[in-house]
Specification:
With 321 residues, the protein is an alpha/beta fold. The chain has helices at 3-23, 36-43, 62-71, 81-89, 135-146, 161-170, 182-188, 212-216, 218-240, 242-253, 257-267, 276-291, and strands at 27-33, 53-59, 76-80, 94-101, 108-111, 127-130, 155-158, 175-178, 193-196, 206-211, 270-272.
Length: 321
């Protein structure tokens, strides 16, 4: 798509938003996990002069956010690659419109600092807490497979992050397979040690996913394009102003500032449009889940990506706070 065509498309989208606001101001319902998107947007000043309203829905993990997408309670949300597959496999009318790439180190298997466990092989016969269908679940299965073990060699306890954290602390489980910012918080508070990190096991992909209904409504689709532009710019700003962003994130999610800073800095997040490599990575994850019986039927992921969205050029992304 040429620069001229992109500019025309954006102008048409903004015109649609203007027409919508002339009658009834549109509200975009956005699902967030631990404040990450909202914090970036607020810290970068990217929520000024919105031609629509945003209703934020905060979720502690992907599973309840996925349920909200499936029920149409939100229009769009940030969700990891593995939990998105569960939504799609259930037949939910949802599509991914852009991908947030990251270093997957913080998607990790944690153990207590004094635990006599030194590799994934030591998890045989142990109890692992994680969310069913989460990126933590995917990581745990991948880590076990790498050392010749399977889900039959361990006992999974499917818990939300808060309960899983408590279970690890009191010895009810031996390991917790989780993600950021929980990994950074556990490390810095001395409550957890990384046994296995996600590098080489997890894609590090998260998606901005939207319901088909939202995508089919021209004004809402235009708002989503504008939101994605602002989100991409805010992320560039956050990467350039880590301290300022970390303060805002810590205030929103109720985490110590050092944990907020660590998890963001090491993830090296970057928004991209959907490309063939991302589709292939998502297909591999879907096939992995199908092979392990977590998805009943093989899922062709290609139709689960929306086309037609754009991202502003890197030179245009920096925002002024």
């Amino acid at each position: 798509m040429s620069v001229r065509t992109k500019l025309f498309t954006l102008a048409a989208a903004l015109l649609l938003l203007g027409q919508a606001s002339a009658t009834e101001r549109l509200t975009l319902r956005i699902g967030d996990q631990k404040g990450n998107m909202r914090a970036q947007l607020e810290a970068a000043g990217a929520l000024r002069d919105l031609p629509y309203d945003i209703h934020w829905a905060e979720f502690p993990a992907a599973a309840p956010l996925a349920e909200a997408l499936n029920a149409g309670a939100i229009d769009a949300g940030i969700i990891g690659d593995a939990p998105l597959l569960f939504v799609l496999a259930s037949g939910a009318p949802v599509k991914a419109i852009a991908v947030d790439k990251s270093d997957p180190y913080g998607t990790a298997l944690l153990v207590r600092p004094d635990a006599p466990l030194h590799s994934a092989a030591d998890l045989k016969g142990k109890r692992i807490a994680t969310g069913r269908g989460s990126i933590g679940h995917h990581l745990a299965l991948k880590a076990l497979e790498q050392v010749g073990l399977s889900e039959k060699d361990v006992e999974f306890r499917f818990l939300g992050p808060v309960d899983a954290k408590i279970a690890l602390a009191n010895g009810a489980v031996d390991a917790w397979s989780t993600w950021e910012p929980y990994t950074a918080l556990a490390e810095l508070s001395g409550q957890g040690r990384v046994l296995v990190n996600g590098r080489g096991l997890s894609t590090g992909n998260s998606f901005l996913a939207a319901t088909d209904k939202a995508l089919d409504q021209p004004a809402t689709r235009a708002a989503l394009q504008d939101y994605l532009n602002r989100l991409a710019g805010a992320q560039v700003w956050a990467n350039q102003h880590v301290d300022s962003y970390s303060k805002t994130l810590a205030a929103i999610i109720g985490f110590p500032e050092d944990a907020a800073r660590l998890q963001f800095k090491r993830r090296q997040l970057r928004w991209q449009l959907i490309d063939p490599q991302t589709v292939a990575e998502q297909q591999d994850t879907a096939d992995f889940y199908h092979a392990h019986g977590l998805i009943a039927h093989r899922l062709d992921v290609a139709p689960t990506f929306a086309s037609g969205f754009t991202l502003p050029g890197a030179a245009k992304l920096a925002l002024q706070p």
